[in-house]
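Hi V.,

You were right to ask for the full record rather than a summary. Here it is.
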Amino acid sequence: MNQLINILILLAALAFIVGTLARFLGGGYLLGNEAVVYWRGAVGLLAFAVTLLLIQIRDK
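Predicted structure:
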């Protein structure tokens, strides 16, 4: 479970970096013009990781 949490946090960081690049570099063909989608995805992944972490703490 800890590995899944770490993967979710890494994916959230990657989504945040891609969203930041899309916002400040103007997007382009690959990144698209809507950087907000990447930031919302990053927040969603972090929320899911926190939920899994809290479930682990509760079950101990």
